[in-house]
Amino acid sequence: MECVGVRFAHSPKIYDYRFGSQAPPVGSWVVVKTPRGLELAKVRTEPRLGQAVGEIVRVATPADLDQHSKLKNRAEEVYWWLKARLRREGVRAKLLGCEFTLDGNHISVQYSAEQRIDLRRWVSELNRLAGARVEFVALGPRDQTAYLGTLGACGMESCCSNWLQDFTQVSIKMARDQQLPLSPEKISGPCGRLLCCLQYEHQQYQELLAELPRKNSKACSLQGVCGKVAKLNPLAGTVDLVTEEGSTVTVHKSELRWE
């Protein structure tokens, strides 16, 4: 089925939606039908074959954009009202944002909390205040970062809030293989979890490490210098040998022999 990819606010994930006789241009705003109701999204891809998750109702009109702006202001009022209530009652939760659907019939409240909490006690009041059905959505550390948007250690917008489509499992072994310092401050992102970018070059590092001896093993150079492998330099293709005399010698893999 021919679709276009669209992106919603506060998420980089792209979803395929089918369209009518003519595909809306990339960069245009469209109104799409979702399980929550009508929502505004931006077209991010040219027409392509895909598995549609819904349909585009229409290209957004000036009236749609004006309605979205008004609902955004209303959502801001709900946000500050609920934030004040949480603070007043000592509820340990971080309120991230509130969003109305374009028809104004549904409002989702995104929050995060270290412990499981129940916010349903405020549903009735929120129903009256917002005039809409209320949905509470708890976000984990990584999803929270994607929702709010942050800068990464590289100085650019974090991958999870900019373009990353899915979270892939990241392990401490990836940091070890890349010879990175295992300090949490060095290998953790704004979310407090291991950097997603550790996975990007890991396969290349594994291939380079396969051509080198293991750390702490014994190796010798062609010149007869032997010692214990103290450090691996996979990008340079060298290892640092510590000899019995205590000196350190850097040897290229082409001049190295080991069992």
How are the SSEs ordered, and which strands pair?
Layout: E1 2-7, E2 14-18, E3 29-34, E4 37-43, E5 48-49, E6 54-59, H1 62-88, E7 94-100, E8 106-112, H2 123-130, E9 133-138, H3 141-148, H4 159-162, H5 172-177, H6 184-187, H7 202-209, E10 218-221, E11 226-233, E12 238-242, E13 248-252, E14 256-258
Parallel strand pairs: 2-6, 8-9
Antiparallel strand pairs: 1-2, 1-4, 1-5, 3-4, 3-6, 7-8, 10-11, 10-14, 11-12, 12-13
Domain PSP1 C-terminal: 54-139
Organism: Meiothermus taiwanensis
InterPro entries: PSP1-like, PSP1_C
Supply the helix-strand structural class.
alpha+beta
Instruction: Give the helices and strands as they follow along the chain.
Output: EEEEEEHEEHEHHHHHEEEEE
Estimate the mean pLDDT confidence: 91
Oligomer designation: single chain
Note down, in words, how this protein is organized.
It is a single chain. The chain is of the alpha+beta class and 259 residues long. Helix content is 25%, strand content 30%. It has a five-stranded mixed β-barrel with strand order 1-2-6-3-4. It has a five-stranded antiparallel beta sheet with strand order 13-12-11-10-14, with no helix packed on it. The chain has a three-stranded mixed beta sheet with strand order 7-8-9, sandwiched between helices. A hairpin with a 4-residue loop joins strand 11 (226-233) and strand 12. The radius of gyration is 26 Å and the shape is elongated. This is PSP1 C-terminal domain-containing protein. Residues 54-139 form the PSP1 C-terminal domain.
